[in-house]
């Protein structure tokens, strides 16, 4: 039997790790976990072999093995004898419901209370998780916009939005420093009907650590949301990483009946 492995590019991973002052196995652990969390390797994918990871990170096999052991204990990875190490994510649970207009109001309020720093907009080939979320065909590109949300110059969150190109052309890119994509889609005449949203915890990888001025491995709140239009077409995917020491999510809970 031929074992199929999807080849991924990890350019610059070793150089970025050398610049971070923390134990090498922890750096490998954090980076591997971020690859799983952001969809670089999705559930069921086989990650590179230990020798391949040694080459990618320029570390010893003992270092790689220690990082993988930790991820296996935490349930992110699973070793299969004679086959390799695979991504293993816990089963999803039934979603709670919330009013979309209330969510839009919170997003608008958060945007009004913060400022946009380092906005970058490019057209890219999406990662596998984004491609699946937006129901894109192979070869289709998306507009990816990344920025830092800050309060009085202090970084609070790293926000990345992915929008199909035909949808992105309806949005005034110059307005993205003033309004969130959520609002711009509505302004462009797109009816926003529903959204799927996931909130969980993760650890800061190299990119997030640099953008948010924190250490690699610092705790983050991760929000991933896919927005659908009136025809049930996904028109936006956003992945937001917030500093756990600076972000607070407030809800009021009331008994019904």
Overview of this structure, please?
With 257 residues, the chain is an alpha+beta fold. The chain has two domains: 13-87, Arc Repressor Mutant, subunit A (Orthogonal Bundle), CATH 1.10.10.10; 100-243, Chorismate lyase-like (Chorismate lyase, 3-Layer(aba) Sandwich), CATH 3.40.1410. It contains nine helices and eight strands. The strands form two sheets. Strands 3-4-5-8-7-6 form a six-stranded antiparallel beta sheet, with helices on both faces. A two-stranded antiparallel ribbon has the order 1-2. Helix 2 (24-37) packs across helix 4 (61-73) and helix 3 crosses helix 4. The protein is globular and about 55 Å long. 32% of the residues are buried.
Average residue-wise pLDDT: 82
Second-tier CATH architecture of the largest domain: 3-Layer(aba) Sandwich
Number of helical elements: 9
Total of domains? 2
Order of helices and strands: HHHHEEHEHEEHHEHEE
- Estimated structural class: alpha+beta
Strand order of the largest sheet: 3-4-5-8-7-6
């Amino acid at each position: 039997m031929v074992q199929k492995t999807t080849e991924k590019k990890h350019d610059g991973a070793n150089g970025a790790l050398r610049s971070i002052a923390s134990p090498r196995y922890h750096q490998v652990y954090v980076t591997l976990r971020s690859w799983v969390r952001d969809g670089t390797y999705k559930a069921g994918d086989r990650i590179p072999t230990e020798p391949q990871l040694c080459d990618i990170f320029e570390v010893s096999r003992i270092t790689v093995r220690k990082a993988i052991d930790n991820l296996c204990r935490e349930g992110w990875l699973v070793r299969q004898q004679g086959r390799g190490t695979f991504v293993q994510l816990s089963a999803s649970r039934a979603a709670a419901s919330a009013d979309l207009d209330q969510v839009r109001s919170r997003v608008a309020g958060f945007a009004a209370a913060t400022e946009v720093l380092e906005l970058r907009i490019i057209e890219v080939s999406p990662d596998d998780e984004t491609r699946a979320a937006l129901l894109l065909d192979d070869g289709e590109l998306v507009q990816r916009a990344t920025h830092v949300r800050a309060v009085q110059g202090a970084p609070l969150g790293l926000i990345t939005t992915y929008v199909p190109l035909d949808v992105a052309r309806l949005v005034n890119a110059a307005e993205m420093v003033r309004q969130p994509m959520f609002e711009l889609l509505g302004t462009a005449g797109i009816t926003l009907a529903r959204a799927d949203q996931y909130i969980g915890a993760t650890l800061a990888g190299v990119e997030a650590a640099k953008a948010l001025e924190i250490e690699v491995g610092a705790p983050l709140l991760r929000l991933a949301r896919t927005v659908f239009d009136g025809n049930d077409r996904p028109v936006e995917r956003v992945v937001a990483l917030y500093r756990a020491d600076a972000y607070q999510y407030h809800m009021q809970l009331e008994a019904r009946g």
